[in-house]
Amino acid sequence: MAVLIDRPNWPGPRGLLWSHLVSDSSLRELHEFARLLDVPERAFDRDHYDVPETVYDRAVLLGAEPVGSQELVRRLRASGLRLPKTRNRSTL
Questions:
Q1: Which residues, including other chains, have CB under 8 Å from residue 53's CB and lie 6 or more apart?
Q2: CB atoms near residue 45 (< 10 Å)
Q3: DSSP secondary structure code for residue 86 in this structure
Q4: Region 47-63: what's the mean pLDDT?
Q5: Rounded CA gap, 70 and 6, in Å?
């Protein structure tokens, strides 16, 4: 059971690079960790948070496990928390 974060390498708003923050065990764990980081709820996208590079070091200091993007997706899928883009949690 871990919160995972990939390196900030996705171009995004404000000219920053962005990471993905996920849990490999529960959305509750993920939301609690995001609150610790002061990440707004609007940054949540179905099964992950998009977080700017300015959050990366603090996330790791608070216990997020740094992993590559492929590892992050593999573990998210293995957890059963990954949703296809066509599905919505409100219909589950």
A1: 8, 16, 17, 18, 19
A2: 11
A3: T
A4: 97
A5: 9
Task: Tell which residue, 42, 53, 48, 49, has the closest CA to residue 16.
Answer: 53
What does pLDDT average to over the chain?
90
Name the token pair of 29. Answer: 């764990």
The pTM assigned to this predicted structure is: 0.85
Distance CA 41, CA 77 (A): 22
Number of helices (H) and strands (E) in the chain: give both, helices first.
3, 6
Place of tokens 């496990």: 65
Q: Is residue 11 within 8 Å of 39, Cβ to Cβ?
A: no
Tokens for 3?
């919160």
